[in-house]
Design goal:
Order of helices and strands: EHEEHEEHHHEHEHEEHEEEEEEEEE
CATH architecture of the largest domain: 3-Layer(aba) Sandwich
Low-confidence stretches: 266-276
CATH superfamily of the largest domain: P-loop containing nucleotide triphosphate hydrolases
CATH topology of the largest domain: Rossmann fold
Strand content: 25-35%
Shape: elongated
Mean pLDDT: 83
Radius of gyration: 27 Å
Distance between the termini: 38 Å
Strand order of the largest sheet: 5-6-7-3-8-9
Largest sheet: 6 strands, mixed
Number of strands: 18
Structural class: alpha/beta
Number of domains: 2
C-alpha cells in the first residue's frame, strides 16, 4: 500500500528560557520599563531525527513514557506545529483528536459547538446538518446538547469531540490519550468506529499508554524514548521491548532504594512507597524484597512460564513463634491476580528471631503479558500485621501467544470428527 505519512529525519526543538525569565506584554515594556526578554534559553529537542512511514489503511501506534515526544509528533502531523528540521509529508485530510475539548467554546451550547467544530474540520453546513443526528446518537449526549459545554464533564468533552471527529470522513485520524477519559462502553464504541475506518482504507495514528489496546489494534508500533525512535515494528515485539525497559528501570529504582536503606538514609528515593502503603505493629520488619529467576539473578521482566522466586528479607525485633509470610500479585489497576502465604501452603511457624530470608518459589509463573505489582507481608496467624507493604515491587511479563484474562495455563486444542484445523495445537511448556 502507498504511504500517506512520510517522515524523514524529523526534529522539533523548543527554547527553554533561563531562570527568572518571564513573558512580558508590549504594554509592560513602556509602563514598567521592563527589559526586552532575553533569547538565551537552552534549546530542548522534543524529537530527534525521527523517520517512519505510515501506509494507507494502517493503524500506527506510538508508545513511550511521559515527555518522550508522542504528542509533539501528533501536533506536527496535524499541522499545529512545524518541524525544526527534516521533512514531513501527509497525503489526505487530517482530523486530530489530540487535546480534550480543543476548539470548543465553553460559553455556547454543545449543538452550536458541533456545527463550529465540524466546519473547522472541513464540512459544509449542509453536510453537517445531514450528519448531525448521527453525531448526537454516537455521542449519547442528546439531552445535554443545548447546555453550554462549560458544564460538561471531561468524559462528555471526549464523547462530543470524538463523535464530531469520526463523522467528518477523515483520511487520517490522529487520536491521543484522550480516549482514556471516557467510560468503558464509549471506548468500545470508539474502537468499533476506528475498526470501520480501517476497513474502509482510512489511516489511524494512535498514541496511548494502554499497551494491551495497542497490541490488539495496531498494525505497527513505534517506541519513542526522549524524542528518539528506539524501535518500530510488529506490535508485540515493540511493546515487549518497551515493557522490558520499564521493568529494568523499576529494578534499578528498587535497588537504589535498597542501597539507600542500607546506608541508613532517611529520605525516601523517588518512587518509594508512601507511608499509607505500609502498616503494622513493627514486631517484625520487612527490610528488602526482590524478584529472582531460577539462577538467582535479580530481574523484573519475565517470559510467561519462567521460574520466579520472591525473596523477602525480614527481621524480628523480638523472638516470634506466630508468624506468616505472604505475597500477593495484582494489576496496576488493583485487580487481584494471585496470592498465597506460608500458612495456606501448610507451613507451620516455629521460631523467627533476628534476620532471615523467606523465599516463595514459583516453578512456572504463568501470567498473561502485562505489568504487575507485588504486595508482601509478615503477620500473625489471625491476620494482625507485623509489617504489610503494598505495591512494593513492579514487574512485567511477556509471552509469544495471547489470550484473555491474566492466567496462562499450558493447554492444547484437539479436534475430532468433521473438524479439521492446521497449525500448532499445543501451547508449549516453556
Amino acid at each position: 500500500m502507498s504511504a500517506v505519512i512520510r517522515a524523514r529525519e524529523l526534529s522539533k526543538s523548543y527554547r527553554r528560557f533561563s531562570p527568572g525569565h518571564r513573558l512580558r506584554t508590549l504594554k509592560s515594556l513602556f509602563v514598567r520599563h521592563d527589559a526586552p526578554p532575553r533569547r538565551d534559553g537552552e534549546m530542548v529537542q522534543a524529537l530527534r531525527e525521527v523517520s517512519f512511514e505510515v501506509a494507507r489503511g494502517e493503524m500506527f501506534s506510538v508508545i513511550g513514557g511521559n515527555g518522550s515526544g508522542k504528542s509533539t509528533l501528533l501536533k506536527l502531523i496535524s499541522g499545529i506545529l512545524r518541524p525544526s528540521s527534516g521533512t514531513l509529508v501527509v497525503d489526505g485530510r487530517v482530523t486530530a483528536l489530540i487535546e480534550l475539548g480543543a476548539g470548543f467554546h465553553p460559553e455556547i451550547s454543545g449543538r452550536e459547538n458541533v456545527f463550529i467544530a465540524a466546519s473547522v474540520l472541513g464540512l459544509g453546513r449542509r453536510e453537517i446538518e445531514e450528519r448531525y443526528e448521527r453525531i448526537v446518537e454516537f455521542s449519547g449526549l442528546g439531552e445535554f446538547l443545548e447546555e453550554p459545554v462549560k458544564n460538561y464533564s471531561s468524559g462528555m468533552y471526549v464523547r462530543l469531540g470524538f463523535a464530531v471527529a469520526i463523522h467528518t470522513d477523515p483520511e487520517v485520524l490522529l487520536v491521543d490519550e484522550v480516549l482514556a477519559v471516557g467510560d468503558e462502553a464509549f471506548a468500545h464504541r470508539c474502537i468499533g468506529k476506528i475498526e470501520e475506518l480501517l476497513a474502509a482504507g482510512r489511516t489511524v495514528v494512535f498514541v496511548s499508554h494502554a499497551l494491551g489496546m495497542v497490541e490488539d489494534l495496531s498494525t505497527r508500533v513505534m517506541w519513542l524514548d526522549r524524542g528518539v525512535a528506539r524501535m518500530t515494528g510488529e506490535p508485540r515485539r515493540v511493546v515487549d521491548a518497551y515493557r522490558q525497559s520499564v521493568a529494568e528501570l523499576e529494578g534499578e529504582s528498587h535497588r537504589a532504594r535498597k542501597q539507600a536503606s542500607e546506608r541508613g538514609e532517611s529520605e525516601p528515593a523517588p518512587g518509594a512507597a508512601a507511608e499509607a502503603d505500609r502498616w503494622g505493629s513493627g514486631a517484625a520488619e520487612i527490610t528488602g524484597v526482590r524478584l529472582c529467576d531460577a539462577d538467582g539473578n535479580e530481574r523484573y521482566h519475565f517470559a510467561c512460564g519462567e521460574t520466579v522466586r520472591f525473596e523477602i528479607d525480614a527481621t524480628a525485633h523480638e523472638p516470634l513463634d506466630d508468624f506468616v509470610f505472604g505475597v500477593a500479585v495484582s494489576t496496576p489497576r488493583g485487580t487481584e491476580v494471585w496470592g498465597t502465604n506460608s500458612d495456606l501452603s501448610g507451613m507451620r511457624s516455629e521460631r523467627f528471631a533476628g534476620a532471615g530470608t523467606a523465599r516463595l518459589v514459583c516453578p512456572q509463573l504463568r501470567l498473561a503479558p502485562g505489568e504487575y505489582r507485588v504486595d508482601v507481608a509478615v503477620h500473625s496467624q489471625d491476620g494482625v500485621a507485623y509489617d504489610y507493604r503494598r505495591r512494593l515491587l513492579a514487574f512485567s511479563v511477556t509471552a509469544e501467544s495471547r489470550g484473555a484474562g491474566v492466567y496462562f495455563p499450558v493447554h492444547r486444542w484437539e479436534f475430532t470428527g468433521g473438524i479439521r484445523a492446521g497449525g500448532a495445537t499445543e501451547e508449549a511448556e516453556r
